[in-house]
Structures are given as structure tokens and as C-alpha cells.
Write a structure and sequence with these properties.
alpha+beta, endopeptidase fold (from Nostoc punctiforme), two-stranded parallel ribbon
Length: 276
């Protein structure tokens, strides 16, 4: 056995004649084609002239845009209308409020004017009534001179502290009546009585109710100058005055008459108390 018997052969296997011929033919055809193409020269490329039409989309878009614009315009118009209506409503409300305030002001002014006219009419009626009463009183007593003489004699009959009280009260005749007044030029009824008695060192209560029980109750048929007259009940009197003698009294009556000296017949009292 040869020493190379197990060594594989490195020779390439022989190709079959048919395969070799086929490959040679293919190669030859390819080369022939290349040769023909090269002989013919480079081919001229023709420009592409075909136009591709794109689908049209602007028509639908325009319609959509137009619809959107109309909607926007409608909304804007609605907003403008609403704003106009709101402004008109606000103006109307302001005008109505102003008119109401003016009406209230006029009504208040009218009420004040009516109240003032009523007060003046009442005051005039009261003055007329008082004047008529004075006329009647003068006629019943004979004459004003005899009444004055009687008043003077009655005042002169007061003595001591009573005379001082009477003199003070008579000196205030003609002063104004003011509710709560305590002098020196305006008084209410109890303020005048309190001030008159204070001149002789007697400190009376401030109000009519208390003054009507400040002394000894006396009969109206047994009055003396300086006695306190009261109208209403003892302890609940609503008016007071000072008896000055001769059937007359001095009192701060009301805002129309002020402080006056009158006959007891002018306004008959309910009772009297004696302090001095």
C-alpha cells in the first residue's frame, strides 16, 4: 500500500461539458449585448411631460369657512344686541330710581307744607278763640279798667313771701312758652312755678305732677295769692300756674300765648295747693 493512499486529493472535480458550454453561452450573450449597446451610443432620455392632476379641495373648504364666518358674525350680533339691551335696562333702572327719589322728596315737601299750614291754621283758630273769650270776659266783668283795678288790689293784698312769688310771676308775663323752658326769657308751666318759688328759697319739684302735691290741698273757693293752681288730678296734673289774687292767675300756657295773666274763668283749674 502506498504511503499516499489515505491522503485526499486536492484536485477540483471536473465540470461536465454541458455545464461549461451553457455558462459560455450565457457569458457570450451578455458580452454581445453590452457590445451592441456600446456601439449604438448612449440613448437620449426623453423629458417627462405628463401632468398629474391633484384633487380639488378648496370648494369644500370655502363653504366651511363661509359657514364659520356667518356663525361668528351671528354670535357677535347676538352679543352686541344683548349689550345694547343691558345698557338700556341699566339706563331705565337708573332713571326709575331717580324718578322715585324725586317723587319721595316732593311727597315729603308736600307733607311738611301741609303740616305747617295746618299748624298755622290751628294757631290762628286758637288765637281767634282766645280773642273771643277775652271779649266775652271783658263784657261780663264790666270793663277792662275795673279788671285791672281788681288785679292791682289783689296783688297788693299779697304779703311776705307770697308777694315775692306773685311779683316774679307777673314780671314774666309776655315771655315765650317753650317746652322744657326754665328761663330767663322762655318757660314751660312748671318751670315758671319752680323759678317763682325759688326766689323765696322754696325748692319745688320740676314737673307739674309733683308740684300738684307739693303742699296742702286747698279749696278753689279759699284761694290766696301765691297758691299753686293745677289742671288735671292731684299727682297727675298736666298744667300748673300761680294764683295772683282777684280771681286771676299767671301761667306759661302754650306756644301761641306764652306767659299770660288770665281770669280763672279763662281756664278753670282742677285744684290748688298752698306751699307758703
Amino acid at each position: 500500500m502506498s504511503h499516499t493512499a489515505h491522503i485526499p486529493s486536492h484536485r477540483k472535480p471536473r465540470r461536465s461539458a454541458s455545464k461549461t458550454a451553457l455558462r459560455a453561452g450565457v457569458a457570450g450573450g451578455v458580452l454581445s449585448t453590452i457590445a451592441v449597446a456600446g456601439a449604438a451610443g448612449p440613448a437620449q432620455a426623453e423629458p417627462v411631460t405628463q401632468t398629474i392632476e391633484m384633487p380639488t379641495i378648496t370648494a369644500g373648504l370655502s363653504t366651511s369657512v363661509a359657514a364659520s364666518a356667518q356663525a361668528t358674525q351671528a354670535v357677535a350680533l347676538d352679543l352686541e344686541t344683548q349689550a345694547t339691551e343691558d345698557a338700556a335696562a341699566a339706563t331705565a333702572a337708573k332713571t326709575a330710581k331717580k324718578a322715585k327719589a324725586e317723587a319721595v322728596r316732593k311727597a315729603e315737601a308736600r307733607n311738611k307744607a301741609e303740616a305747617a299750614a295746618e299748624a298755622k291754621a290751628q294757631e290762628a283758630a286758637e288765637r281767634a278763640s282766645r280773642s273771643a273769650e277775652r271779649t266775652t270776659l271783658s263784657a261780663s266783668t264790666g270793663s277792662s279798667d275795673s279788671a285791672s283795678s281788681s288785679s292791682s288790689s289783689s296783688s297788693s293784698s299779697a304779703t311776705g313771701s307770697a308777694a315775692s312769688v306773685v311779683a316774679f310771676a307777673q314780671s314774666q308775663v309776655g315771655d315765650a312758652y317753650v317746652s322744657g323752658g326754665t328761663g330767663p326769657n322762655s318757660w314751660d308751666c312748671s318751670g315758671l312755678v319752680q323759678a317763682a318759688f325759688r326766689t323765696v328759697g322754696v325748692d319745688l319739684p320740676r314737673v307739674s305732677q309733683s308740684q300738684s302735691t307739693a303742699g296742702t290741698q286747698v279749696s278753689l273757693d279759699n284761694l290766696q295769692p301765691g297758691d299753686i293752681l293745677y289742671w288735671g288730678g292731684a299727682g297727675s296734673a298736666y298744667h300748673v300756674g300761680i294764683y295772683v289774687g282777684g280771681g286771676q292767675f299767671v301761667g306759661a300756657q302754650n306756644s301761641s300765648t306764652g306767659v299770660v295773666q288770665k281770669s280763672l274763668d279763662y281756664d278753670p283749674p282742677s285744684g290748688a295747693v298752698r306751699v307758703l
